[in-house]
Amino acid sequence: MRHINYCYFITLPMIIKDGEKNKMKFEKNKQEIKRNQESTKSKKILFCASTVSHINNFHLPYLKAFKEIGYEVHVAVNEKADIAFADRVIKIPFFKNIISPKNLFAIYKLRKLIKTEKYAKISSNTTLAGLVVRFSLMFLKDRPLLYHIAHGYHFNHKQGLKKFIYLVPEKIASYVSDHVMVMNHEDLLMAQKYKLYRHKLHYIDGIGISTSRFKTITAEEKRMLRSRMGLTDDDFVFVYIAEFSKRKNQELLIKAFSNCNLKNCILLLAGDGKELNNCKKLVNKLNQSDRIRFLGYVDDVPSLLAACDAAVSSSRSEGLPFNIIEAMGCGLPVIVSDIKGHRELVEHGKNGLLFENDNICKLTECMITLYSMNLKQQSLFREFGTAGSKRVEKFTLENVLPKVMNIYNDTAL
Asked: Which of 3, 138, 283, 331 is most buried per CB count within 10 Å?
């Protein structure tokens, strides 16, 4: 009978137990190393957008929030500028034409920056910058987490083949889009249908707007504001605040307003942009210079809105428009084109009016309707404003910022 080493059976469980302990220790050390690596990187975040104004208008509260929790904050935009709460601003040459070969240099420059700085997180914003930064991350080893905010996809399910001009690049970029945030339900459906994200898709109520932008004033204060602007109590004042561009479509509004021929009715156009001169020429051609006024860039938007009676937007495309949220927050009834983004805010006949996109006649009808309502149905006119104010409460910075920061802090994949 073969000799059995009973010591082996006694020590075997001890060996197995020690092995399991060593394995657990190894895994613990491995996790600790990973946490240390992440903590080394986790103090840097890069915000990317096509323009400085986009960062200043929408993201400063988030730059501040990251600074307060110990992050080093970098911003990549199209020009060198001082940006509050940013430790470093990097100029990246974004070119507006999405297929421009010049954007290859922007991709190269961003990729080099990302490899050098070893960011833990990147926030990409706007269509162009969003694509450029995500293309720069393709096949990059040990890349940072990417949080992309879709401020409004430039395509929809009704566009047929045309939508693929933007959809295909967005789909390619989705392979590095760890977290994608959308701010209207139509974009949410598009992102789900084509899976325009890698790990998680989030719906957010915009990027947040400060309640300080919602200004309500007394009748006497309104009278004083109007007086300074050369307006009278009898004037009914429409206002449109937007960059002058083909997308914002001020030309349509100018033509529709000129068709109205309403007594004591004024249209104020605030903003600047490439189409400003063309719009001024159109106003002169239509002999509307005494009724349509160009204000240029306006710093105190809340005071301007408070001095007006109603807001209009003839835009062809929006994600979730701040100008309309601001107007509604100030208690103004609104007239807006029937597009996604606007539909997220306005319910026709309840807190404003929707008109068929690009339809001059329908826009003219809506302007006449609202003007007449102010004269003959003032209680309904005021109800529009009250309902609008209530509708936009959910989009305030106080409500939105904590939720968006929770998404930024979500590192699970």
From this structure: 283
